[in-house]
Known about the structure:
This protein is mostly helical and 335 residues long. The protein contains 13 helices and no strands. Helix 1 (2-9) runs antiparallel to helix 5 and helix 10 packs antiparallel against helix 11 (211-258). The protein starts with a helix and ends with a helix.
Amino acid sequence: MTVFSTTLGDLVTLAGRRSIRGALLPSFVFCALSALLAVAPGGGNRSLRSWQVAPWEYKVLVVAGFVLVVLCVAAALNSAQTALIRLAEGYWGAAANRTLGRLGRSHHRQLVRRSDDAYTHDRYPPISRPHELMPTRLGNILKAAELYPRLRYGIDTVLVWPRLHPLLPEPFLQTLGAARTDLTGFLGSALLAAVLTLGGAGYLWVFNGPTPLFLMCLWGGGLVAWLCYRGALLKAMTYGQHLRVAFDLYRGHLLEALGHPVADSEEERAHWERLCLFWHRGIPLQPITMPDRPASPPAAPAVPDPPFGLVPSLSQLTVALLTIMGIAGALVGTG
């Protein structure tokens, strides 16, 4: 799914209402709550009195510094969109894939086997391709959208998408960009909420902040992060539908631009396969003869069942961890 993230990253500029909703507003809320938590251990009333008696030059510098920090956080959030989507999809590196990644894929494999086709259609790769499952819900939603062109038309999405998206009409690009902005906005809000949850709770624990505030920060912030992630899942489904529509409606535009319009569906599939081989390996288009495809597609590689029973999801493990941290922190470290 990185192909969609990288090529659309430079396509839609976050400006106006879209920028405020996607990066600036979450950054402002994050910085404001962080500032409130910073003065909480020392007493809010004392900080308020210090602010009231401070000279106006000091107040101007503080406000200017706050605005600068908000803008820096928003800029960092905006520039990290691609990395944030990859992180939410489940591209975590070899070590994490062998542990958390394996656990997440096992959970979703069990969930797919227990669910019907109507539920898994837009949320997971086909049941015949269990090796394509990702460790997160969002990763599976976007993976299903990425596999759609290959399964329907024989199109390698990674190769074709950078060549297709410049040909998309402007109204469709705006719709697609708005869907991606909504997705990254919710993901950015979830990330900032998670940072505030762990960082704020740790700060209050170290400086013996009030126990109710510690629990509110840890559990309330975790709830907000989870709600933002759930919102991102809904936006990812909308985004994935737009990507499917892009290939359904406009793939012929690319063939026409290349000078290879095709009318027959079987001929089109074979032509896409030849084009992808040409772009990927430099194999000439004309001399190659595509082998006859078998009547039924080859079976997907077998994926062994986990050696244990019901596998918890990563969200359930996170809830359990936050619960334990909250109870332990309240009993041990806060005032």
